[in-house]
Design goal:
This protein is an alpha+beta fold. It has six helices and 13 strands. The protein is 17% helix and 35% strand.
Length: 246
C-alpha cells in the first residue's frame, strides 16, 4: 500500500523540554489511532523530513514504533518560521479502505513531445490559480497528483477549472468544480497591471493557496527551535555559548 517507510522511537519527553530533542537532531511526533491513546514518538531529523518530502499530506506512510506497525497519513507538520526547519509531525493512522480527506497537488498534463502549453509556446502567459485540491478517497486510492490537459490552453481567455481534472475511480474532488485552475493571459496585460499595482498584480490575481504545512507549534515554542548546524547554533558557538547545556 505504501512505499514510504519510517521507523520511530517512543519518547518520554513532552512539552517545552522537547527543545532538547531538537538540539540533538530529533523531531518530536505523535500518532493518533482511531480514538486510542496517542502514541508519542520521535525520529531523526533527516529520516522524518525525507518521509515528509516523499509523502506530503496525501500519500500513506508505513510506520514502525514500539514494536507495532501503522499505516498513516501525515495530518499536520510544523515548521520554524525563521529557519524553516521541521519541528513537529502529526500522523493519523488509517486503514486501507478507510476514507480520508486531504489535499492533492494539481499538475499540467502535456503531450509527450512538449514541455509547455500551446499558449506559452505562442508567447502568452498561463497563470496558475490553484496548486492543490481537496479530495476524499480510501487511503489506498489516494493519487499522488491530479492532472488537467494543458494542450487545451491555446488562446487568451482559455482556462481550466477543477471540473477539467482527470480523476481516477474512487476519488471524490471536494473543491468547487467551477474554480479556475489556470488561465491564459497576455503578458502585456499582466505587465501593465503590475505597473499600476506597484508590482503585485499577478500575486493579487491568483487565489491564495494554503501551504502544505501548518505553522502552529505543537510542543515547545518556535523560538526554542535550533536546527542542528543552523544559523543560531553557529552564532552560539562563535560567542562561546553551548545551547545543549541550557
Amino acid at each position: 500500500m505504501s512505499d514510504v517507510t519510517l521507523e520511530l522511537e517512543k519518547r518520554e519527553i513532552t512539552g517545552k523540554t522537547v527543545k532538547n530533542l531538537r538540539k540533538a537532531g530529533m523531531v518530536p511526533a505523535v500518532i493518533h489511532d482511531h480514538g486510542k491513546p496517542s502514541v508519542v514518538v520521535m525520529a531523526e531529523y533527516q529520516a522524518i523530513y525525507k518521509a515528509y518530502q516523499e509523502a506530503g499530506r496525501h500519500h500513506p506512510v508505513s510506520l514502525k514504533a514500539g514494536g507495532k506497525s501503522y499505516t498513516a497519513i501525515i495530518k499536520n507538520v510544523t515548521f520554524d518560521p525563521i529557519y524553516n526547519s521541521l519541528m513537529h509531525v502529526v500522523f493519523n493512522a488509517v486503514k486501507a479502505n478507510e476514507k480520508v480527506t486531504t489535499d492533492i497537488p494539481v499538475h499540467v498534463k502535456l503531450a509527450e513531445e512538449n514541455d509547455s502549453t500551446p499558449a506559452e509556446r505562442a508567447g502568452l502567459m498561463v497563470l496558475h490559480n490553484v496548486t492543490t485540491v481537496e479530495v476524499e478517497a480510501a487511503a489506498n486510492k489516494l493519487p499522488d497528483a491530479l492532472e488537467f490537459d494543458g494542450e487545451k490552453l491555446v488562446e487568451v481567455g482559455d482556462h481550466a477549472t477543477v471540473a477539467d481534472l482527470i480523476v481516477p475511480a474512487g476519488v471524490l474532488v471536494k473543491t468547487d468544480a467551477e474554480q479556475t485552475i489556470a488561465r491564459v493571459v497576455e503578458p502585456a496585460a499582466v505587465a501593465a497591471a503590475n505597473d499600476a499595482a506597484g508590482g503585485d498584480a499577478e500575486a493579487e490575481e491568483q487565489e491564495s493557496v494554503p501551504a502544505d504545512h501548518e505553522s502552529t507549534a505543537e510542543e515547545g515554542t518556535q523560538k526554542d527551535e535550533i536546527r542542528p548546524g543552523g544559523k543560531q547554533e553557529k552564532e552560539d558557538k562563535q560567542q562561546g555559548h553551548n545551547p545543549t547545556k541550557d
